[in-house]
Write a structure and sequence with these properties.
About 20% of the residues lie in helices and about 25% in strands. By secondary structure, the chain is an alpha+beta fold. Strands 2-3-5-4-6-7-8-9-10-11 form a 10-stranded mixed sheet, sandwiched between helices. Helix 6 (about 235-245) runs antiparallel to helix 8 (about 275-290). It starts with 13 loop residues before the first helix and ends in a 15-residue tail after the last strand.
C-alpha cells in the first residue's frame, strides 16, 4: 500500500500535477499513483477571473436612507387577513411615511403569541428587519401562520393548505392602497421555511424569498437523510404542535395574559381535529420511517422538480454549515432544483449555527458566530431594491455563491455545487487503508444501534466508546498538500446484513499530525430503505444492497500532513452535547437514534468508494466590512 496520499494542489492543472508531486517526494523507487481525477463537465460560460474582489464592489444605486425615518417612530398597523378557505390570519405591519408605492417585507411566522406588539416583552419576529429596512422605504411586518398566535385555523406543520393560506395573505397585503403590489418573504427557521413554501406555490405578489436556516424537506428534518431518526427532532410534529399551536405564549413575542382579549383569542379553537391525523402520522412514521404522502407534500425539493415550468420568484438562500437544528442537508438537492427553475439565485453558506448571517447584537466574528458584516444594510438591501423596487443594484452581476470554509476564508463560486470541483475517489482496502485503486475482499462491523453518551450542556465533543467489532475504519496516508472539500462527499458500496434490520453510518474525520482527530462530516442510511425512502423492507437478511449516500454539504480545509479517516458503523463516531441556545454544532457531531439488532453488516470492498468533492478553485473574497472587537 502507498505510504503517502498525494492530491493536486488547488489551482494547479491536472496535467502539471505529476511533476509537482514528484518534487514533493511523491515519486520514488516505488512511485505512488495519482488518485483518479474525474473532471466535472466544463461550464458553458467561462468562470469569471476576479479573485479578491469584494462582494460590495458589484453593488451600486442602493436606496438612500430616508431622513428622519426610524423604526421606533413608526406605528404598528393591525390587519385581519381573510384567506380563501375562510380562515382569518393575524398580521402586524410598520410602514414609513407615505400612502402609496411601498414594497412589503413579511415574516410569516408561528412564533408570535398574539396581541399588540407594543406590549410584547420579547419583541416580534420582524424586529430586526423593521429596524434595518423601514428607514429605506420598506413596509415590514409579520403574519402569524394559521393556528398560531391570533390567527384562526389549524396549525398544520406545512403542507398544501398552509402554503395556500400564506399565498392568499401575501396577495391580500399586496392589494393595500399603500402597497406597490410587491411582497418578499424572509425569516430564520420555521419563518424561513414559510419562505420556501411560498417558493413552491408562489402567488403573483411574491417577488422574492429569503429562506435562512429553513426546512426544504420535513422528512429529512425529522429522519436525517437516510431514514434514521435524529435525536434532536424525533416526534417533531408532535412536540411542535404544543409549542406553537396550543400554547398561547409565543417563542418570539406576544402579550400572553397581559392583554386578556387577545389571550382568549389565542386559546380559541387551537385544538383542532386536523391535528389528529398529523399526530398519528408522526407516531406511525417513527416506527418505519417511510416517506408517506404526508411527508411528500412537505418535500420542497421534489415539489419544485415536479413543476419546473411554474413561474417562481428569485431566491436569496442562506445556510449555516454548523447549524445542527435545521442542518445544511437542507441544501442538498434543493439548490440544484432551484437552479433548474432558472430564477435568479444567490447563496451564502458560512460557519454559523441557527441564526442570521449577521446578528444585530454582535459585531464580532467569533467562532461559530454569524459573521457577515454586509447583510442588512448592504446585500440584503440591494437584493430587495432589485426585486421589490425595480432598481438595478448589481446583485445579478455578483458571483452566485459566497461560501466560508472552516479555515475562516470566504470564497466566490459561480454555482452550487461549485463548477471548480474535481471528483476524487478513494477506495477502502482490506488492510484498513484508503487507497487509490479498488479494494478487494470484504469488511464488516456489528450494528449495535444507537451509541449514546450522557449529555451535558457543555458543548464539548465526546468520542464514543465503541465495542470491539462494532465499527471498521479506513485511514489514508498523510496529505502532501492541503485539501479543500466543498459540497457533498459520497459513499458508495454494496452492503449485506445477516439480520432483518441494520444501519450504515459513515463518519469522516481528519487525523492531524499530532494524532488528534477532528470531526468533519457524516452520512447515514437505514439499510431497510436502501431501495427507496418511500417504502420499508421489513427483512433485508442476506440481501446485497447497493447503497449511495451523500454526506452533508460542508466546506472543509484539511491540512497538509493530516490523514483522512473513514469510520463505518451503526452510529456516528462522535457524539454531541448541547450548548448555548440549544443548537448543536454540526462539527461536534449529531446524535442519531438508529435501531440495531446486532446484525453483522458486510461491505463489498470491490464496489466501495469514497468520492470527495475536491475544490480546485480558490477565488478568495475580499471582505469589505470592518469587524469590531468584541
Amino acid at each position: 500500500m502507498p505510504s503517502s496520499f498525494c492530491l493536486p494542489r488547488p489551482g494547479v492543472a491536472v496535467v502539471s500535477v505529476l511533476a509537482a508531486l514528484l518534487m514533493l517526494g511523491c515519486g520514488n523507487s516505488s512511485p505512488v499513483q495519482l488518485a483518479p481525477i474525474t473532471p466535472i463537465t466544463p461550464p458553458t460560460t467561462p468562470i469569471a477571473a476576479d479573485p479578491g474582489k469584494a462582494l460590495s464592489a458589484y453593488l451600486h444605486d442602493l436606496s438612500p436612507k430616508l431622513e428622519g425615518v426610524t423604526a421606533e417612530a413608526a406605528a404598528w398597523e393591525h390587519y385581519n387577513i381573510p384567506v380563501s378557505d375562510g380562515t382569518v390570519l393575524d398580521g402586524w405591519i410598520k410602514r414609513p411615511p407615505g400612502e402609496a408605492g411601498q414594497p412589503l417585507v413579511v415574516v410569516f411566522s408561528p412564533y408570535y403569541g398574539g396581541g399588540d406588539p407594543d406590549l410584547s416583552l420579547l419583541g416580534t419576529p420582524a424586529d430586526a428587519f423593521i429596524e434595518k429596512l423601514l428607514p429605506y422605504g420598506y413596509a415590514v411586518g409579520f403574519i402569524s401562520v394559521g393556528g398560531t398566535g391570533n390567527s384562526g385555523g389549524c396549525f398544520r406543520d406545512g403542507g398544501p393548505i398552509e402554503r395556500k393560506q400564506l399565498g392568499d395573505a401575501a396577495d391580500y397585503m399586496a392589494s393595500q392602497t399603500w402597497s406597490n403590489g410587491k411582497v418578499a418573504a424572509i425569516g430564520v427557521s420555521y419563518d424561513g421555511t414559510t419562505a420556501n413554501e411560498l417558493f413552491v406555490d408562489p402567488p403573483a405578489s411574491i417577488k422574492t424569498v429569503v429562506p435562512m436556516e429553513a426546512i426544504s424537506d420535513y422528512y429529512r428534518y425529522t429522519f436525517n437523510i437516510g431514514g434514521i431518526i435524529r435525536e434532536s427532532t424525533t416526534f417533531f410534529t408532535t412536540y411542535y404542535y404544543p409549542i406553537v399551536g396550543l400554547s398561547p405564549a409565543g417563542l418570539n413575542g406576544g402579550v400572553g395574559p397581559t392583554e386578556p382579549e387577545s389571550y382568549v383569542t389565542e386559546l380559541e379553537g387551537e385544538p383542532c381535529p386536523e391535528q389528529l391525523a398529523i399526530q398519528q402520522e408522526s407516531v406511525t412514521t417513527e416506527l418505519t420511517a417511510e416517506k408517506t404522502p404526508f411527508w411528500q407534500e412537505r418535500d420542497a425539493v421534489q415539489l419544485v422538480l415536479d413543476s419546473l415550468d411554474k413561474p417562481r420568484p428569485p431566491m436569496f438562500f442562506i445556510q449555516g454549515y454548523q447549524d445542527a437544528n435545521v442542518d445544511p442537508q437542507m441544501a442538498d438537492g434543493f439548490l440544484e432544483a432551484v437552479q433548474q427553475t432558472g430564477v435568479p439565485l444567490h447563496v451564502w453558506m458560512g460557519q454559523w449555527v441557527h441564526a442570521y448571517p449577521q446578528s444585530t447584537g454582535t459585531a464580532a466574528c467569533a467562532e461559530k458566530a454569524p459573521c457577515r458584516g454586509d447583510f442588512f444594510e448592504s446585500f440584503l438591501l440591494a437584493w430587495f431594491d432589485q426585486f421589490l423596487k425595480g432598481r438595478d443594484t448589481g446583485v445579478l452581476d455578483a458571483p452566485m455563491v459566497q461560501t466560508q470554509a472552516d479555515d475562516g476564508v470566504w470564497r466566490h463560486e459561480d454555482s452550487w455545487p461549485p463548477k471548480t470541483l474535481q471528483a476524487t475517489s478513494l477506495f477502502p482496502q482490506a488492510d484498513g487503508t484508503l487507497g487509490i485503486t479498488s479494494g478487494s475482499a470484504t469488511a464488516s462491523y456489528t450494528d449495535m444501534g444507537a451509541n449514546q453518551a450522557e449529555e451535558t450542556n457543555t458543548g464539548q465533543q465526546i468520542t464514543l466508546v465503541e465495542a470491539p467489532g462494532s465499527f471498521v475504519e479506513f485511514v489514508s496516508g498523510p496529505l502532501a498538500q492541503p485539501l479543500r472539500l466543498t459540497g457533498l462527499p459520497r459513499l458508495e458500496s454494496v452492503a449485506t446484513a445477516n439480520a432483518p434490520r441494520a444501519n450504515l453510518v459513515a463518519t469522516l474525520m481528519e487525523r492531524k499530525a499530532d494524532g488528534t482527530q477532528r470531526y468533519l462530516n457524516f452520512a447515514a442510511l437505514n439499510l431497510n430503505h436502501a431501495e427507496s425512502l418511500q417504502s420499508y423492507d421489513m427483512d433485508i437478511t442476506g440481501k446485497a444492497l447497493p447503497v449511495g449516500i451523500n454526506f452533508y454539504p460542508q466546506d472543509n480545509v484539511i491540512a497538509a500532513g493530516s490523514q483522512l479517516v473513514l469510520h463505518l458503523a451503526g452510529d456516528v463516531a462522535i457524539e454531541h452535547t448541547t450548548a448555548g441556545n440549544g443548537s448543536n454544532f454540526l462539527n461536534l457531531g449529531v446524535s442519531l437514534l438508529p435501531t440495531g439488532m446486532g446484525a453483522d453488516v458486510s461491505l463489498d470492498l470491490t464496489q466501495t468508494k469514497l468520492v470527495l468533492p475536491n475544490n480546485v478553485g480558490d477565488r478568495v473574497e475580499t471582505l469589505s466590512w470592518i469587524v469590531a472587537a468584541p
